[in-house]
Amino acid sequence: MKIYIFTIFPEYFECFKNYGIVSKAIKQGKVEIETVNLRDFTKDRHRTVDDVVYGGGPGMLLKPEPIFEAYDYLKSKGVNPYTLITEPWGEKFNQDKAKALSKKEEILIICGRYEGVDERVKVLVDEEVSIGDFILSGGEPAVLVIMDAVIRLLPEVLSDEKSKEIDSFSDGLIGYSNYTRPYEYRGMKVPDVLLSGNHKLIQLYRRWDQLQKTLKKRPDLLEKANLSDIDKKMLNYIIYGKSFEDFLKEEKVD
Ligand code: SAH
Question: 220 catalytic, yes or no?
């Protein structure tokens, strides 16, 4: 995958490239990140990328010319990117969008700054994307978020491919609770079922835990989740305030 970023602050992304999974993915050649400095596509001595807003009003806007020129430059190199622009009102970025983007070969993300971009730039854009209902001072932090979520989904980037499947949202629910050593810490113990070695039981308990957490913390997710018959049964127990042990006993699971 190749990711191009149109920005007035190309150095912003350097630190991001040097850490963790992203850095590994770059070293392995799974992803290449190329920042394009919009100032390189200005024609005046001051390398101006912004201008005042027609009709008046506060602030400045990113001018259309550097963005179009930079886009033409990519096209002239044979790049045919799926193009996004960061906008606070854009479609909300989420795990499904991250998955869809991880399947693209060439992505371009245009970072807005100031009051935003000249509206005519939108003819280049396939998708307007937001990372939430709040206002950032520029698209760059949003692009870091998007790239991080997408890159870890690329094939063979995570050391354990299975972790993608158990992450929150991957199956419509919150991920299950995890524990590591020590077994007991400050009076708090690890649920014994996790030490039982009974794989089927552990799987069932984790599913119970996922359902319980989702019901409590993100009930909105349950409406869209793909629940099996056993999920629905467990959910009923949870709603009636029963424990996992009650469920095992009453449903005669062993
Ligand atoms: N005046 C604009 C906000 C401009 S913020 C408005 O009222 O909507 C400057 C730039 O930051 C935007 O052009 C966009 O590229 C980026 N940005 C701000 N908030 C964002 C968010 N929540 N998600 C993605 N990008 C955002």
Answer: no
Q: Could you confirm whether 115 is annotated as catalytic?
A: yes
Tell me how crowded residue 204 is: count the other CB atoms within 10 A of its CB.
18
pLDDT digits (tens, 9 = 90+) for 187-221: 999 999 999 999 999 999 999 999 999 999 999 99
Say if residues 214 and 225 touch (Cβ distance below 8 Å). Answer: yes
Three-state SS for 80? coil
Marked catalytic residue, from 81, 152, 206, 209 = 152
List, in order of start, the domains of the chain with CATH numbers: 2-151 (3.40.1280.10), 168-250 (1.10.1270.20)
**Nearest CA, atom 23, ligand 1:** 130
Ligand 1 atom nearest to CA at 117: 13
pLDDT tens, position by position, 135-165: 999 999 999 999 999 999 999 999 888 888 8
Nearest-10 crossing angle of helices 140-151, 20-27: 70
- Angstrom distance (rounded) from CA 65 to CA 53: 15
Distance 132 CA to ligand 1 centre (A): 10
- Active site includes 152? yes
pTM beyond 0.90: yes
Ligand 1 within 6 A of CB of 138 = yes
Q: Which residues pair with 4 in a beta bridge?
A: 34, 108
